[in-house]
Predict the 3D structure of the following.
Amino acid sequence: MSNPFKPNDSAIWQELARQRDLLQQTSLSELFAQDTDRYARMHASAAGLTLDYSKNLINSTTLDLLTGAARSSGLQDKIAALFSGAHVNTTEDRPALHTALRDFTGRSPHLAEIEAVMAQMKSLVEQVHSGEWKGCTGKAITDIVNLGIGGSHLGPMFATEALAAFNDGSVNCHFVSNIDSEDLSSVLSALLPDTTLFIIASKSFTTQETLQNAKTAREWTASIAKTEADFGRHFIAVTSRPDKAVKFGVSRQNILPMWDWVGGRYSLWSAIGLPIAFSIGMDNFNRLRRGASRMDQHFLTTPFLQNLPVLLGLLGIWYINFWDTRTLAVLTYIHHLRYLQEFLQQLDMESNGKSIRIDNRPVDYQTASVLWGTVETNGQHSFHQMLHQGTQFIPTDFILALTPDSANDSHHPYLVANCLAQSNVLMTGKTREQAQADLIVAGQKLARAAELAEHMQMPGNRPSNMIVMEQVTPESLGALIALYEHKVYVQSVIWNINAFDQYGVELGKVIGNRIYSRLTEDDYADRFDASTEALISLYRKVNGNRS
Ligand code: F6P
């Protein structure tokens, strides 16, 4: 699919740059003072989420121009193309059909395959929860260990933790991703092989970290698993390469499929989401899918000015391309959403961290910014200083739930108050005059108050979005994830880049394998740059010098 939209060459882009110049002469506080209906006009709701975008450096002209840019990029057709199974992943010449995995209309592409895998997941979850699935020593499974990385880890880990309140205690789920053996051993040290079931989650079944962890897990299980049948009671695989999983030793009936029409970082809706289903049950997993489906319908059918993913995507473009921002802070005021930033980092930066357009030409504008952040008030006692008074201009997304997971939680109003205070202070700041007056009231002499006021003034005028849900439920979480998935797609369309490949991660894997051989084999011929060679020599010296 070729996209003729070239942002920098478009008249609308020039107009947006002029808008930025105009808005630089005003402030968020002034914009609110001029328009008492600003919140009413600048919030939108869908699928149980409300997006308050009124604290952004925009006015109605900005929004008209940004949605105009979206129209010029052909966004509406591109959204339809995504859902219909067109080959939106142009370099790999395939669709990106994560939306089909949560389509309940009965008309989705690949319906039969999706229904079959959901039935397989349901059966597995029921067997394990009921205790019918026994380990090879006859004991019921108490612990699931997911071995996967990237998209085969982050989405399942994030959603499982986010929905911990929905775990009925049938099994505990653990996640191991890193090649550092400490990751696996620290999880296994608290478990028994008899009652542990591993999921080897790898779309490609070639990923070094996952395969190495799976090998070590198999060795750990060998104390009880003496035959292939024994081993089969403790290992399941999710992969698009069942041949490789069988070769590894997983029995064919324990392999759940993945497909090349689902990208790794968009795959938690597939059998890659099995740990989520083990943790919260299949009914709740389906509620998660339904929440995402509601956001999908909203994205497909809602005019851009009320369309949450479109608005979020356009606001990101506004700051990245016109206000030169280089990072986006995501601040979650919900404890169980503590892996959201890690999940979004892959989703956003692996999707849109690109510099070549779909028409094979380099971009001449910025694309994805660095996404970072943390959970709850921890950040306030750490990096928020820089958000408020640093020289960098950093837009922020706040995520908030209006009710806590557990009833009668007396901490929750404090949490909400902190979240709202941060977005308010980022916007309003404090003038030097206010700071000086406060100091004088507190007893400071005028001269000292004038000096200190320089340090205590806060520029304010820092934009933020507030994404609010009533409570974290499978539905609201599904909608939140789909919101960010589609936001990323909106931006990729306007930037005219392919959000669904990740060639940038491949070279490091190849070189990593060659350096591994150089570290461990005496006669390996490859040589690297002088710095890398010196570091290899250091390693070999410390580990018994075989160089
Ligand atoms: O890091 C690159 C990557 O290919 C991701 O895109 C993917 O989610 C991850 O590796 C894991 O891949 P696999 O599921 O094939 O093991």
